[in-house]
């Protein structure tokens, strides 16, 4: 976002209009911070915290899309393999939060029920606390944008 100041500016503008300058972001504001959430989701897509999900073992033969997975296989899901899949995402290496905004401009959630990216996983072994962790992520992120001014560090000259 620092490298694309227009994105940072749009997120700050959203915060100024929803929250204003006289108070901190509150949980009740989060529903309205759609662009900030789209930015957080784009971070999850392009820079996931770890490349692979925790390994799982298939309990029975299964077919997922084009893949046959025999019983007893150890299955690792690649987060970059999904979040940077050229069959799904256009300009996949570009940080582009607006790709997560819905046409009606309404709410953005950090999960992806179509599994086009894997942040919280899903099903029986999916994250138990998606709402809590989405709230914490958005709140922290929003406060960092709202209350601080962000610039790229000056180029340091190393004296030898
Ligand atoms: C941004 C923050 C978080 C992310 C991205 C995240 C992501 C995930 C993912 C991908 C899994 C599935 C792991 C697997 O495949 O086995 C998982 C599982 C789980 N998460 Fe989270 N998590 C987050 C925060 C939290 C928080 C704050 C809590 C609790 C307060 C939590 C509780 C759990 C639990 C209990 C499971 C195990 C579910 C099970 O196997 O039955 N997570 N999380």
TrEMBL record:
Does the entry feature the keyword Transmembrane, yes or no? no
Topology relative to the membrane: Single-pass membrane protein
The record ties this protein, via Pfam families, to: p450
Cofactor(s), names only, from the UniProt record:
heme
List positions binding heme.
Answer: 127
Keywords (alphabetical) are: Heme, Iron, Metal-binding, Oxidoreductase
Subcellular location(s): the record lists: Membrane
* InterPro entries in alphabetical order: CYP450_AA/FA_Hydroxylases, Cyt_P450, Cyt_P450_E_grp-I, Cyt_P450_sf
Provide one Gene Ontology cellular component: membrane
What coarse category fits the chief subcellular location reported for this protein?
Answer: membrane
Q: Which Gene3D superfamilies match?
A: Cytochrome P450
GO MF terms, alphabetically ordered? oxidoreductase activity
Q: Which domain of life is it from?
A: Eukaryota
The protein, known as: Tryptophan N-monooxygenase 1
